[in-house]
Amino acid sequence: MTATTSRRTKGAGSVFKDDAGVWHYRTELPPDPATGKRRRIETTGRNKTDTRDRHQAKIDRYHRDGTIPTRRSPYLRDWLAARSERRRAVLKPNTWYSQNCRVTTISGVLGNTRLTDITPAHIHALADALADRDLSQATINEHVRYLSQALDEAVLDELIPSNPCRRVKRPRPDERTVTILDEHEPAALIRAATQTVLAGGARGPHDDPEDTAMWALMFELAFATGMREGERYALMPYELELRDGTPGIHVQQQLQDYVGGPDASIPRWQDAEHVTGGLWLVRPKSAAGDRFVPISRSLWDRLWDRIIAYGMGPRQFVFHNLRGTPLRHEQEMRRWRRALDAAGLPYVSIHSARHWAATRVAESGAGEDERKAVLGHTDIRMTARYTHWGAGALGDMMTRAIPTLAPTDTQPQ
Q1: Same structural domain, 258 and 306
Q2: From CA 37, how far away is CA 404, in angstroms rounded?
Q3: How many CB atoms lie under 10 A from the CB of residue 169?
Q4: Are 26 and 42 in contact (CB under 8 A)?
Q5: CA torsion sign, 297 to 301 to 307 to 308?
Q6: CA–centroid distance for 94 within its chain
Q7: Residue 234 sits in which domain range?
Q8: Cβ–Cβ < 8 Å for 326, 255
Q9: Average pLDDT of span 61-66
Q10: Which of 157, 216, 349, 393 would give a disulfide with 193, using CB separation of 3.0 to 4.6 Å?
Q11: pLDDT of the residue at 128
């Protein structure tokens, strides 16, 4: 085959027209770092100018996506966007959405910087820019941590020699204090919930006595089990089990409100069933989340009273609104605030009930494995974050641990 060639700079590639009148543009790439095999980009076409432009666009796309190591490093914004899109298929919808928001924020500050040009000074500039937006130190650290994880991947891809985030020491965030109710205050809140009728209006229908009883039972379940909100909303009769004569709840699922609603991008590994709107029924957060939580016989009986009264099937929601659909956080939040006000209690979050339960379990003398089993944690350090030791419990522990050291029958001289 006779070909018309034009000389180009060594290493840049080649351009030629074959006997059929087809133009060829070729660009040599560095060898594949994993296999060592030769790589190149090639574009063909009948029109020289069009072929050249399409070939250049193809090269630019490869550079922008950061899929190959080149002398021309991709911009951070393009590489982070491509990485985020790749991860979308393996992350839960809300997790991906949160991480993609970080990509947008980071790109707004450092997006025009090429990967190879990023230095520790850029990381400090990012932290300063986020601080100027009045973001907390914990939130700033989350953004820097995400960028560090991404740049670790860039090192593995041989796009950069090292991760500049590793040379930056992040300030330790202030510890967030979670306020919980005292040992006996939940009873007052639950009692107030049974007596508090929420008036109707633009924000929703009024409560009737059956509704108030349901919310009181829901709040009691939160304190008595430490179950997560989504686990309580997803409770179905088949999860109530008797094991060795002990009544309890076999937590096996939770409700999640996913970004994207019924069209949310569910990763292949996740077992998810669409319920309504943005609500999906999914497995617990981890294997440890699938657990058996014992409850009192009284609570067990009242849960079954509700199930029988409504004629619920094994896989119907125990707690639901007037239309039979499962509850949402916003609905529970309104009743929770109203019950706190009616009981004259200080404001605490709904999630604090989980902290309250963890604290009571710890103060009972339960071992680490028992505490993790009830809360559904894989690491005792996480369980410790949910435990808030009271002065009385610590005092009792110290009394048991350390005997009186001074002699009691000695009189001062």
Answers
A1: yes
A2: 77
A3: 7
A4: yes
A5: positive
A6: 7
A7: 185-263+271-393
A8: yes
A9: 67
A10: 216
A11: 95
Nearest partner of 243 among 286, 311, 300, judged by Cα = 300
pLDDT at 267 > cutoff 80 = yes
> Residue 267 in contact with residue 90, Cβ under 8 Å?
yes
Residue type, 152: D
List the CATH number of the domain containing 105: 1.10.150.130
Number of domains in the chain: 3
Q: How far apart are CA 330 and CA 344, in angstroms?
A: 21
pLDDT at 31: 67
- Residues 359, 238, single domain; the answer is yes
The confidence score (pLDDT) of residue 33 equals 52
**What tokens appear for 270 in the block?**
């996740």
Instruction: For the chain, give the percent of residues with pLDDT over 70.
Output: 87
Distance CA 13, CA 294 (A): 70
Summarised one tens digit per residue, pLDDT across range 374-400 is 999 888 888 888 888 878 777 877 777
Q: Report the candidate in 242, 234, 237, 227 with the shortest Cα–Cα distance to residue 305.
A: 237
- Residue 206, pLDDT above cutoff 50: no
Quick check: is 85 in a domain?
yes
In DSSP notation, 43-77 reads EEESSHHHHHHHHHHHHHHHHHHT-S--SSPPBHH
